[in-house]
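Protocol step 4 of 5: obtain the predicted structure for the target chain.
Materials: sequence only (see below). No template structures provided, no constraints applied. The aim of this step is simply to have a reference model before the mutagenesis design in step 5. Sequence pasted as it appears in the construct record:
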Amino acid sequence: MANQYDLIIIGSGPAGYTGAVRAAQLGLKTAIVELEEKLGGTCLRVGCIPSKALLEATEKYDEAQNHLADFGVNVDHVSFDLEKMLQRKESIVNGLTGGVAFLMKKNKVTRYFGRGSISRSGVVEVVQESGEKEELTATSIIIATGSKVSSLAGVELHGNIVGTSTEALSYESVPEHLVLIGAGVIGLELGSVWRRLGAKVTVVEYLDRILPGIDSEIAKEAQKIFKKQGFEFRLGSKVTSARALEEGGAVVEVEGAEPLHCDRVLLAAGRAPNTDGLGAEAVGIELDRRGFIRVDEHFRTTVPGVYAVGDVIGGAMLAHKAEEECVACVEKLATGYGHINYAVIPNVVYTHPEISSVGKTEDQLGEHGVDYKKGVFPFMANGRARALNQTDGKVKVLADAKTDRVLGVHIIGARAGDLIAEAATAMEFGASSEDIAAVCHAHPNLGEAVREAALGVAGRVRQM
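Step 4 output (structure tokens):
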């Protein structure tokens, strides 16, 4: 029958569309159900991709305005065209979401437009905008519906005055004063965009540090750099309310402090699993106390034939982690074997400088009593970084004190997001710091900083 499939995936984000392509490659008759017109999920539409487009545009503006003169390049009367920046962002999004649609067609994955929910075992109901309903059946169903912005008590969302990252990607003008609630990745990246264009940016964070989850030594260095760039931080501060004002602008109230009056508020205090309208609990899919779907090591939910992957099951909320999970789940269904190595999932913050990490942080190793050695190398001592005029930051390599096996690598500095791939590859193959140090790196190159940090584990740094 036309509506019968081997696999139905609910959600077309990086997990969903990647998993659907892999399923089709493995010979499974596959369908994907998506509520939004554009495929690609939050990441492609209103997350990873558009934010990076704006980060790149504003970084070029900041460089032209403040740094090109250091290279002997004189640029007078530098200005920016916000409308064109936003148009470029949309063009990139449209190109990539169109590319996902092409992938579905090329791999013969059937796309259904509407809200997908599980009505009973093996059955997905698709409700279109018109209200028309259609039932699909499948041997296996994967839930890949991702996450949404977490709410915060007292914060009243109001258009783009008090909004989320979605609204902050499309402000029609640069706010004079932007208050970020939350000092995580999303807030700092989007805060960087608007700070470079002239906004005053105040970051209010409940914790006493920025970037929770990032190695604390790296996070402290990042905070110093961001402060020099113009960020104002109010750490250890509890937001009790945030609301739009009738006369315009907004006010953010902080426990034990004076209220903050501003033009815009960006709520970036984390993300929550997107299980709305799935019918999960009605069919017996168990959720934990935070709303994440419970799964076993093979991504099986508590309902036979129903699986879940990505942000909706918790863990690191990263697009590439979700992709790997869905591919592993699909391969397990089709071949009997699927694997993901959670110990080697890289993470990148696309601020300037970039911040990246893979493996254990120094904090985690200390908490678990792991005996380790550390090698550190500053970008200031790297020739390529000096040529780029990007000498902030360093590379840190952590290795087991007995075996020398690399346990974690943490980078803040130029192109850290690219450099972390070498570390992740090395760790995937169980490399030691000596292995990384033994590999010949091109000179002059930023990758040499990784090698020198690896040499530093054994006290052999050569380029200081």
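Step 4 remarks: The first strand starts at residue 4 and ends at 10. The mean pLDDT is 97.
Proceed to step 5.
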